[in-house]
Specification:
Elements: H1 10-31, H2 34-41, H3 45-52, H4 55-77, H5 85-102, H6 106-113, H7 119-124, H8 126-141, H9 151-172, H10 178-212
Helix pairs in contact: 1-2, 1-4, 1-6, 3-4, 4-5, 4-6, 4-8, 5-10, 9-10
C-alpha cells in the first residue's frame, strides 16, 4: 500500500474506504469490481491502484483497518466489569451502531470476510482475522445469565439472542437508520431478559408451593 493514501483528506479516505467496504460486503472478494467502487464514490480506477496496487492490496488494507476500528470501538463501548450477558450484548450492538454511522458496511464486510476461501486472502489477513475472532469471542463468552442455573439452557438462550440480533440486522440494516436498528435490538434483548426473569420467578413460586404442600 502507498502510504501517501494517508496524506489525503479524511473525507476522501473515508469515501474510498466506504466504497471498498460496500462492494466487498455485497460481492465478496472474487466478484468485487473496482468499476463498482468507482461508481459508488466517484474516484478513478487509476487512483485506487495508485494507492493500493491491486484488488488484493485494497482488500487487505480495508480488512486490517476494519479490524482495528471495530476493536477500538468495542473496547470503548463494552465495560470490562459488566458481567450480565444481556447488558454486554447491548453494549456490543451500541458500538456497532456508532460504527455504522461512519462506515455503514463495515460490520457486514467483516461478517462476509469470515466466508472467504481465497488462499491469498486467507494468508494476507490471517493475523488480523485471528485477533478479531479472539476479541469478539471473548466479549460475550463470560457473560452471565444468573437466573438460569442449567448451563445447556443458558447456551440456548444466548443462541436465541444471537439469532434474534442477526435477524433484525438482516431485516432492517439496509432500510433503517442505525439508531432504529439498535433500538429494536435493545428492546428484544430487554424482552428476552424479562422472560428469563419471569421464568425464574415462576420456578421459585412452584418450588415454594411444592414445599408448602
Amino acid at each position: 500500500m502507498n502510504e501517501k493514501f494517508f496524506d489525503l483528506s479524511r473525507l476522501k479516505q473515508d469515501r474510498m474506504i466506504n466504497g471498498a467496504l460496500e462492494v466487498f460486503a455485497k460481492n465478496g472478494f472474487k466478484h468485487a469490481s473496482t468499476d463498482d467502487m468507482v461508481k459508488a464514490v466517484d474516484v478513478s480506477k487509476g487512483l485506487w491502484f495508485h494507492y493500493f496496487g491491486s484488488k488484493l492490496g485494497l482488500y487487505t488494507f480495508v480488512y486490517g483497518y476494519s479490524v482495528k476500528y471495530m476493536i477500538l470501538e468495542l473496547a470503548s463501548a463494552v465495560d470490562e466489569k459488566e458481567k450480565n450477558y444481556f447488558e454486554i450484548m447491548k453494549q456490543i450492538e451500541y458500538a456497532k451502531m456508532k460504527i455504522s454511522k461512519s462506515y455503514p458496511y463495515m460490520t457486514r464486510f467483516l461478517e462476509r470476510a469470515l466466508e472467504e476461501t481465497d488462499t491469498e486472502i486467507m494468508e494476507q489477513t490471517a493475523e488480523d482475522r485471528r485477533i478479531y475472532q479472539e476479541k469478539v469471542a471473548g466479549l460475550g463468552k463470560n457473560g452471565e445469565i444468573p437466573e438460569i442455573a442449567d448451563k445447556a439452557k443458558r447456551e440456548k438462550i444466548k443462541k436465541m439472542a444471537h439469532y434474534t440480533i442477526e435477524g433484525i440486522v438482516k431485516d432492517k440494516a439496509q432500510s433503517a437508520e442505525p439508531e432504529t436498528v439498535y433500538k429494536e435490538i435493545k428492546n428484544y434483548l430487554d424482552l428476552l431478559r424479562s422472560m428469563v426473569a419471569m421464568e425464574k420467578r415462576m420456578e421459585e413460586g412452584l418450588s415454594i408451593d411444592s414445599a408448602a404442600s
